[in-house]
């Protein structure tokens, strides 16, 4: 299964006015990088987000959220949000803002 290109368009729209992001095809999907650090992306039809361990732990209590695990080994500090969790533009924006807030604090690469 290819990744969700409609979700990619929605994400691009959210960051269209920013010049500090770039996208890169990877792991059969696409990753969006902020200052050289991966921030969020798409794997198949799921939104993946880098939130840090504390925020990720809190996110796991929400519906449609699970650990980011595509290899049998979950990535710490990352989550996957099922399509039902990003149906509305507001929900998608809220998830993306959380990832941006976390990654913005990381050292630039």
What is this structure's SSE topology?
Layout: H1 5-14, E1 21-26, E2 29-34, E3 37-43, E4 46-50, H2 53-59, E5 65-67, E6 78-81, H3 89-104
Antiparallel strand pairs: 1-2, 2-3, 3-4, 4-6, 5-6
Overview of the structural elements:
The termini are far apart. The protein has helices at residues 5-14, 53-59, 89-104, and strands spanning 21-26, 29-34, 37-43, 46-50, 65-67, 78-81. The chain has one domain (5-104): Aspartate Aminotransferase, domain 1, CATH 3.90.1150.30. The model has no long low-confidence stretch (mean pLDDT 96). A six-stranded antiparallel beta sheet has the order 1-2-3-4-6-5. The longest helix is centred in the C-terminal third of the chain and has 16 residues, at 89-104. The protein is 30% helix and 28% strand. The protein is α+β, with helices and mostly antiparallel strands and 109 residues long.
């Amino acid at each position: 299964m290819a990744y969700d290109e409609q979700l990619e368009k929605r994400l691009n729209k959210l960051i269209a006015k920013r010049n500090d992001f770039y996208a890169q095809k990877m792991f059969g999907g696409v990753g969006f990088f902020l200052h050289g650090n991966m921030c969020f992306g798409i794997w198949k039809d799921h939104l993946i987000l880098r939130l840090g361990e504390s925020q990720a732990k809190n996110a796991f209590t929400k519906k449609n959220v699970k650990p980011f695990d595509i290899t049998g080994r979950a990535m710490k500090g990352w989550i996957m949000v099922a399509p039902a969790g990003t149906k509305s533009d507001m929900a998608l924006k809220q998830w993306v803002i959380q990832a941006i807030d976390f990654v913005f604090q990381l050292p630039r690469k």
